[in-house]
Amino acid sequence: MNQLSTEINLKDLRHKHPNDIAETITELNAKERILAFLLLPGDMKAEVFTYFNHAVQEEILKELGSRETAAMLETMAPDDRTQIFENFPDLLIKESINFLSPEEKSIALNLLGYPEKSIARLMTPYYIQAKKGWTIKKALDNIKRYGKKAETLNHIYIVDKENKLIDDIRIGKLLMADDDQTIESLMDYEFVSLTTTMSREEAIEQFNKYDRAVMPVVSEAGVLVGIVTFDDIFDEIERRDTEDIQKFGGLEALELSYTETPLMTLVRKRASVLLILFLGEMLTASAMGFFEEEIAQAVVLALFIPLIISSGGNSGSQAATLIVRAMAIKELGVKDWWYVMRKEVLSGVLLGLILGAVGFLRIFVWQQAGFYDYGEYAMLIGLTVGFSLIGIVLWGTLSGSMIPFLLQKLGLDPATSSAPFVATLVDVTGLIIYFTIAASILRGTLL
């Protein structure tokens, strides 16, 4: 693709959303990507750059000089710039910041000075504020003067002489008021805010609780220092949920997306958990070895081992999934463990009765229809399978529901109680339950 055709394509792209432009440029080969990006207007470069994945961002930055990089970062929203800095090498951060204007340099250093996972890293210092003694006309004039640079115009923030936040007012309410009214006449002194030291997880909870599109950020002393918009919080929610799903699936969380993660990194993160699960499953072989005599005397029992242990693992995974998600959305806390245990005991018994009845009927029907001959003690084998399913499903349900509470009590992430981990635990203990019940029912007959 030559430069002329690149320009023609870009003319069509310029009327599209920056995310669509980023997607189109990403599909080009490396050389064309750089050329297409460089041909974008200066102000559009900053917008489009934030939508590239990490690999493309790094590729483009290698081609740009420090001054070109700084020029792009200069026009970028402070919160987007801070997120990009988090993935920059330290040397590049230092060089880029030094080329920023004094005002933007101060903002960048201030945001980078907050703890890495704090909500302050995501805030922007561009918002509209006013004093309670102002008239509506003065406030609107202030919006017209500074509004273009503001991240959002949903609210105007009212501060006192010390710049402490005392209220927020919707712009719509301001527009409906008379010009000579004062800001104070519209105030109710009821507002919600985030603090700079608050973690991003806590901030997500606040956004969900109050159903806000934007929230102010104040210092520990109550001084207004910035705002956080929901688009930034949405990115954090997506990142958090992706990490939890990966952990629950039985692997270490990935720092980058699946497509950007190098093969060996992916293998390393998956192998560590698989190795632990494999060592756990080796206990299954040990358990079967312990009951070797019973299996030798009644080989028919071995036919139902896959059925028994998979039912327990599945019920445990189900319970763990329900509880981990309920804890993630704050529907359940550690204090609710007793309520969950009572509910899961009943659920486990009922589910076990359903599967146990089906298991018993399976053996009974197959025996009567002549599909398989379980011998003269077919009914006892059916009862063994039926009662074993009740016990194992109950145990699986209890294990899957209680492990997340135990992990949270220990200060660990409940999401690490992955489905494979619960299934492995129930596999080993399920065999013990199965053969213990078999020994009790079949003693003196098959055994």
From TrEMBL:
Localisation: Cell membrane; Membrane
**So what family is this one in?**
Belongs to the SLC41A transporter family.
* Keywords assigned: CBS domain, Cell membrane, Magnesium, Membrane, Metal-binding, Transmembrane, Transmembrane helix, Transport
According to UniProt, the name of this protein is Magnesium transporter MgtE
Q: Which Gene3D superfamilies match?
A: CBS-domain (3.10.580.10), MgtE N-terminal domain-like (1.25.60.10), SLC41 divalent cation transporters, integral membrane domain (1.10.357.20)
Physiological role: Acts as a magnesium transporter.
- Membrane topology per record: Multi-pass membrane protein
Q: Which residues cross the membrane?
A: 273-291, 297-324, 345-365, 377-398, 419-442
Subunit field text: Homodimer.
**Listed GO CC annotations:** plasma membrane
Database matches in PROSITE patterns: CBS (PS51371)
Q: Which PANTHER family match?
A: MAGNESIUM TRANSPORTER MGTE
Q: Which Pfam families does the annotation name?
A: CBS, MgtE, MgtE_N
Ranges for domain CBS come to 187-243
Under the heading InterPro entries, the entry gives: CBS_dom, CBS_dom_sf, Mg_transptr_MgtE_intracell_dom, MgtE_N_sf, MgtE_transporter, SLC41_membr_dom, SLC41_membr_dom_sf
**Which GO MF terms are attached to this record?**
magnesium ion transmembrane transporter activity; metal ion binding
